[in-house]
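Batch manifest, entry 17 of 40.
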Amino acid sequence: MATIAKERVAVTAPPRRRMEGNKWSAWLWIGPAVVLLLAWFIYPLIQTVILSFSKTDFLGNPVGFAGLNNYQFVFTDGDLLGALKNNLIWLILATLLTVGLGLLVAVLVDRVRIEALVKSMLFIPMAISATAAAIIWDFVYAYNNQYGLLNAFLGLFGIPPQSWLTNDAIATFSLIAIYVWIWTGFCMVILSAALKGIPDEIIEAAKMDGAGRVTMFWRITIPMIAPTLGVVVTTMLINVLKIFDVVYVNTGGKYNTNVVAMEFYSRYFLDNQPAIGSVLAILLTIAILPVMVINVRRMRAQERTR
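Output type: structure tokens
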């Protein structure tokens, strides 16, 4: 009875009082999230920005204002420019290969008998951590003292063994192959779900009009799954921009495989150069933000069309 009475009071209360009550109730629910956001994101971000404009001593302690000198150093130092170049290679190749192979497999195995088996096999790498996957591929690429699986396979065709992770010319591409092995299954599953959402009526109508498989792929499949494809691409772009674990485990940034996240870790935690590390962190954030904004806008546009 007391609950019913309270509900009646709430219903019969003036609109202004009800709006005030709803406002405080909303702040009560989102308050903890706001506090955590301020403590674990906004405050560290502000501190990182301040540190990126600071001079530091040999222990890494701020000792003054450096202006844009730290940013100028990042864009003129040879090692850092190499890391930026490698990140660009990762961004293009890793994104194209993961999304492209995921889409290809999703289309090829769509509605065939072994679809579940193929999807399960390709998704298995996602069940393990990137660190574990990197260790597995370290054995696959093994060259010193013993030949790994890949070199043993090439030996069957008379091809000499290759130092996949210590050859400056191919080490970065070998690491990208590990990333593609891990994430192709993720792209395949998401895109396959989008393919299942294409109405059968549209497919049948296209077939009746004489559309071939290639025409149906470009004129029917791609336009119908374009929103999902956009989400997958932007997700991969964000992941690739902050790639770290595979590089750290397999090469540690050596042999021309350094990337921005690896360089940030080395400068900030190993070389006592937190100012330079902060600059790299800011650059990564700036690079990721436009991709996130595009993703959010696309999702909002989808919600409006529903």
